[in-house]
Amino acid sequence: MKEESLLERIAYRLVKKHISGTTMSSALSKAKELNKRNLLASITFLANKPENKAKAKYVTTTYLELIRQVSRHGLRASVHVPLEQLTYDGDTELEQENELAIRETARKYGVFVWFELNGLLSEQIQSIEQYRGCGVALDEASAVEYLKKYGNSKAIKVIFGEANTKKNVGKKAGDRNIDYICGKAGNTVLSHMPESRLWPMLKNGSKYKKSAIFEFGMGYSRKKVNKALKRGARVSLSVPFGKDWAGYAANNVSEGYMRFIVGNLLKEDNKRGK
Predict the structure, then answer these.
(1) For 180, what's the count of Cα atoms within 13 Å in the CB-facing half-sphere?
(2) Is the Cβ–Cβ distance between 46 and 245 less than 8 Å?
């Protein structure tokens, strides 16, 4: 096992509040702790895009075991699976095979699974929608586009992030989007929503408190999470775990210095791979 560099150790200290740890047991323990605080959990395995079929199978096997453990521990937790983790080099058959194994295991153990798609892949969404206990995770624009094209959905998780925030979606346009999504989806989760849009939605008498679940990252202020609970919101926290945390940190941790460090780590990894 290679010795961790000083840069990696510093980076991990900065990112550790945003993830449960590097092991599955750390994620299960965190989900149990959240449940005791009347919070839901959405657990995901931090794995880089597979470099071969064996790694894609390994990631799939990890999710299968995670589903079994969530059920075994009786946790109020869903499992969040980025589809790009299940395939190698665009092999759609491999992805469908691994996706099906996860869906069947989730159905057997009664654990809800979110499948995250990059962009709008309508045929894939419709395939997932056919299965009970599964939902799709999309960015805001793709969710609206999909619903306008195909009508209703069983369950949609809308993933907000810096890329969406930088588009500066106006309040009225954003409210119309969320109204539309909540009206068309049987279950809606609003994940990592910018505060400029979040708190107006959670004002007294807000209709959204019954129609949506609000999902925060682990590094989000505990005081603000409690504030959302006091306002009557249904709240979930995303619970990532795994050793491949650098890419997740680069996309989800806002500190500029953290981004600088993680960017250097990714550059080093790319050089090693050449």
Answers:
(1) 18
(2) yes
Amino acid at position 88, single letter = Y
Partners of residue 216 on adjacent β-strands:
237
Tokens for 271?
């050089």
Q: Is the dihedral of CA 246, 251, 253, 259 positive or negative?
A: positive
Report the distance separating Cα 115 and Cα 94, nearest Å: 15
User: What is the C-alpha separation between 274 and 221, in angstroms, rounded?
Assistant: 40
pTM to 2 decimal places: 0.85
| 171-225 confidence digits (pLDDT tens) | 667 788 999 999 888 899 999 998 888 998 888 667 888 889 999 998 889 999 9
Domain 23-244: give its CATH architecture: Alpha-Beta Barrel (3.20)
**Residue 189 dihedral angles phi and psi, to the nearest 5°:** -115, 130
Q: Are 199 and 227 spatial neighbours (Cβ–Cβ below 8 Å)?
A: no
